[in-house]
Specification:
single chain; about 290 residues; D-amino Acid Aminotransferase, Chain A, domain 1; four-stranded mixed β-sheet; 7 helices; about 25% strand
């Protein structure tokens, strides 16, 4: 099926991945949910594996329908659904002891003024993607100027860093790093590959374990007190990672053939002691020949 691509071009990495899988005998079909007419009540799995690349609400919803009828999905539907929700992710990461910013939620931004007097804040849509809709709050009165919205937002504690994005990409247990100067459009830049220290590698793998992900990326700020995870995305673009296509293809093939799997059980936070109060928009399908 023809699909609409970012900037009119297919992802070179995905083209390479599909070509490698096809040469290994897999039958591949792909499409964009927004460009199809689908009857959810008639939708049933007819592929051995669905690979969810899209982050749109429609694609995620249709993945939920397929999941309800027993489809195998990579990453698993439950994992993608919770990862898409930054409120849920914030709770899971901090409960698991993974360094992540303190987060507040409310339906009225002005109620955060007391918090904003104490800490600098970053406001984000709770299902935001690619840096859209982010506001940095330096003064409490700025909160009154934020337009109202029916879509929930999260307020995260601002984490000072180097001014450089560290994108950490993971395939299974393999971890890769890409650095790029921070900007509102830096998501579109490939950046430059670089090493990832052992502490950040461990954090990245723990994120995948608690969220049930195998193909994912995390955004890391290298703060004065150490690496902090400020965002998690399932199946990112892997821009800037050299020779990544064969690694992704191997992982998808192994998952399709059942030699690897992901734990999708509901997350159970570890016990804690009591404390004082103080591109691509595609859905892709893989089927062995």
């Amino acid at each position: 099926m023809q699909v609409r691509r970012a900037q009119g071009r297919p992802s070179a990495i995905l083209v390479d991945v599909f070509d490698r899988l096809s040469r290994r005998g897999f039958q591949i079909a792909d499409g964009i949910a927004e460009e199809l007419v689908t009857r959810p009540d008639l939708l049933r799995p007819d592929h051995d594996l669905y690979v969810l690349k899209s982050h749109t609400e429609l694609s995620l919803s249709l993945a939920g329908v397929l999941h309800a009828h027993g489809a195998r999905i990579l990453n698993p539907y439950a994992s993608c659904a919770r990862t898409q929700n930054k409120i849920v992710v914030s709770s899971i990461l901090r409960a698991a002891g993974i360094p992540a910013p303190r987060t507040w939620v409310t339906g009225d931004m002005t109620l955060l003024m007391e918090v904003a007097r104490e800490v600098r804040l970053v406001l984000k849509p709770y299902r935001g993607h690619r840096g859209a809709g982010i506001h940095v709050i330096d003064r409490p009165l700025q909160l009154a100027a934020i337009p109202s919205s029916d879509t929930p937002r999260i307020a995260q504690e601002y984490v000072p860093g180097t001014g450089e994005d560290l994108k950490v990409y993971v395939v299974g247990d393999q971890v890769f790093g890409v650095r790029k100067p921070f900007s509102e459009t830096s998501f579109a830049s490939a950046g430059f590959p670089g090493p990832v220290d052992s502490t950040t590698c461990d954090i990245a793998r723990r994120c995948g374990a608690v969220l049930g992900l195998g193909l994912y990326g995390i955004d890391v700020i290298e703060s004065p007190s150490g690496p902090v995870v400020v965002d998690v995305n399932y199946f990112p673009g892997y821009k800037g990672v050299p020779a990544i296509a064969p690694i992704i293809a191997d992982y998808i093939a192994a998952y399709a053939l059942g030699t690897i799997d992901l734990i999708t059980a509901d997350f159970a936070p570890r016990p804690r002691a009591a404390q004082p109060h103080i591109h691509d928009r595609d859905q892709h399908f893989v089927q062995p020949a």
